[in-house]
Amino acid sequence: MQYLLMIYQNEVEYAKNDAATSQKMLAEYGAFTQSIIQSGSFKAGDRLQPTTTATTVRVRDGKTLTTDGPFAETREQLGGYYLVEAKDLDAAIEMAARIPGARIGSIEVRPIWVYDK
What we know:
30% helix, 4-stranded antiparallel β-sheet, single chain, two-stranded antiparallel sheet, 117 residues, flat, 35% strand
């Protein structure tokens, strides 16, 4: 089954990291990513640009409305994701717990809805 592992963290606090801390975190992400690629679990994954680059789109009464930034004001922002293959929710949670960002933010684990073709 496929799961989306969404990485949330406070991007303002993360931006306060010094260069060495940022480099260490990037290296940890690289190692984690390589480990799930080698295990065959990796399907996709990317880091997102900051929320200042986001645009929220809504359609109301047939009109497209756009707003700069994310829809919700929260303490943590979606910073990236992994799409993985896992045998069950427990395996997906184990993978999510290994994501470096879990130590400073949170990882939302959500099953992918599979449509019959």
